[in-house]
Amino acid sequence: MHTVEDAGKLEFKIPEGVNKCLFLRNKKGDKHYLVLIKGSKRLDLKNLEKLLNETRLSFASPERLMKYLRVTPGSVSSFWFN
């Protein structure tokens, strides 16, 4: 699913609700983070940067998704295995 709205169109409903799995990278690109939040919430990147002691976080590119998680955009999952 590319968006929480896409997941809401499924024929079955998840009792706990939909989650977002976001794959982020730091400014240097030498650290990556897999962030899981409730689908109804917005991620405060500035607050997360402070918590992680990072200067800037951004979404990882499709190339990084493939390299590190072996998935394409819309396929990031908290159930990741190396």
**Rg calculated over all Cα atoms:** 14 Å
Instruction: Estimate percent helicity.
Output: 25-40%
Main structural class: alpha+beta
Low-confidence stretches: none
Shape descriptor = flat
> Count of helical segments?
3
Strand content: 15-25%
Average pLDDT? 81
By DSSP, the count of extended strands is 3
Q: How far is the N terminus from the C terminus?
A: 21 Å
Main beta sheet strand tally, sense and closure:
3 strands, antiparallel
SSE pattern, N- to C-terminal:
HEEHEH
The strand order across the widest sheet is 2-1-3
Summarize the structure.
The protein has 82 residues and is of the alpha+beta class. It has helices spanning 4-8, 45-52, 62-69; strands at residues 19-26, 32-38, 57-59. A hairpin with a 5-residue loop joins strand 1 and strand 2 (32-38).
Give a written overview of the molecule.
It is a single chain. By secondary structure, the chain is α+β, with helices and mostly antiparallel strands. It has three helices and three strands; from the N terminus they run H-E-E-H-E-H. The chain has helices at about 5-10, 45-50, 60-70, and strands at about 20-25, 30-40, 55-60. It has a three-stranded antiparallel beta sheet. Strand 1 (about 20-25) and strand 2 form a beta hairpin. The protein is flat, with a radius of gyration of 14 Å. It starts with a helix and ends in a 13-residue tail after the last helix. The model has no long low-confidence stretch (mean pLDDT about 80).
